[in-house]
Design a protein that fits this description.
308 residues; alpha/beta; TIM Barrel; Alpha-Beta Plaits; 2 domains; two-stranded antiparallel sheet; globular
């Protein structure tokens, strides 16, 4: 089921709600992860979040070879043999997800569910006391939060009615009029910057960064903004590149720049959704280099952090 225009933002597609999050804004937070993203970052740590539909995720380690999924698959995309174990033909699979209903061992799972605003708010508000004591609140992340504008706007509006501090984590790749509507109900923007060079950015993410940088300047003029940089050795960790980001951040008035060292979380998840991991050579910069970059940012008069 794809959300239609007639739905008018009453429901959204999410892939996770993470409680007790301490890396997605100030204090203790609950992060709502929207599903669907227009970027195609080579290193994506949540590749299961890219599609705008519920997705089949496979954990072969849990498979007991019972064959229930084979019987459930109307496309004949699943086979099991004693020699080769279970095989799933992803080309034949239509993502009907009937196999996940048949699997009782947690080997075949659905990533993504449709939810209403009140359903999410009720779950988020379970930890209201922690937000009040820590200065936390709710963060909407992704995927890409700006790709489900109507639902996220409704969600954030209701969150403000509940008195919550609200944050969005975004790439900024969306029409400005849609982003501006969401910002009405946002206290803090975590703005992801992948690379300042447009060609490098397009090579690594599939899109140009012109709109992203324009929206960054607009958003930072309206709301408190922190920059977040996924840090990948040899791609975007050069001294002059980080210096340029720091200068940009200083000039547009951001409060903080967060360096997020690359990790391989997306490698195993890519296998679970049947996709190749497209940047196996990616590495994390060494600790001394990261600390130097942090100090470089701080010399520009900005706060800097590593990993949050």
């Amino acid at each position: 089921m794809v959300l239609s225009q007639k739905d008018n933002g009453k429901r959204g597609l999410i892939f996770n709600i993470q409680r007790f999050s301490i890396h997605d804004g100030p204090g203790i937070r609950t992060t709502v992860f929207m599903k669907g993203c227009p970027l195609d970052c080579l290193w994506c740590s949540n590749p299961e979040s890219r599609d705008f539909l519920p997705t089949l995720m496979v954990r072969e380690i849990n498979c007991k070879g019972c064959g229930a999924c084979v019987e459930a698959c109307v496309e004949g995309a699943i086979s099991i043999s004693r020699e080769g174990g279970r095989k799933i033909d992803r080309d034949r699979c239509t993502q009907c997800l009937l196999c996940t209903d048949a699997c009782i061992y947690g080997s075949l799972n659905v990533c993504g569910r449709y939810v209403g605003v009140r359903e999410v708010i009720d779950e988020v508000m379970r930890d209201e006391a922690f937000y009040n004591n820590s200065g936390g609140g709710m963060t909407v992340s992704g995927g890409e939060a700006l790709s489900q504008t109507r639902f996220v706007t409704r969600l954030l509006r209701e969150s403000k009615r509940e008195g919550l501090h609200t944050t969005i984590d975004t790439s900024g790749y969306a029409p400005w009029n849609e982003m501006r509507e969401i910002l009405r109900f946002v206290d803090l923007v975590l703005f992801d910057i992948k690379h300042l060079d447009p060609l490098q950015h397009k090579r690594a993410t599939g899109v140009d960064n012109g709109l992203i940088l324009k929206n960054l300047k607009r958003a930072s003029a309206e709301r408190m903004t922190w920059l977040r940089l996924p840090l990948i050795a040899g791609f975007n960790d050069a001294f002059d590149h980080i210096d340029n980001i720091a200068v940009l951040g200083r000039d547009i008035g951001v409060e903080k720049i967060s360096l997020l060292p690359y990790h391989e979380g997306g490698r195993s998840k890519s296998a679970q959704i049947g996709r190749a991991y497209r940047i196996p050579e990616a590495k994390t910069p060494d600790d001394d280099h990261i600390q130097y970059l942090k100090r470089l940012i701080e010399k520009k008069g900005l706060k800097a952090s590593v990993g949050s």
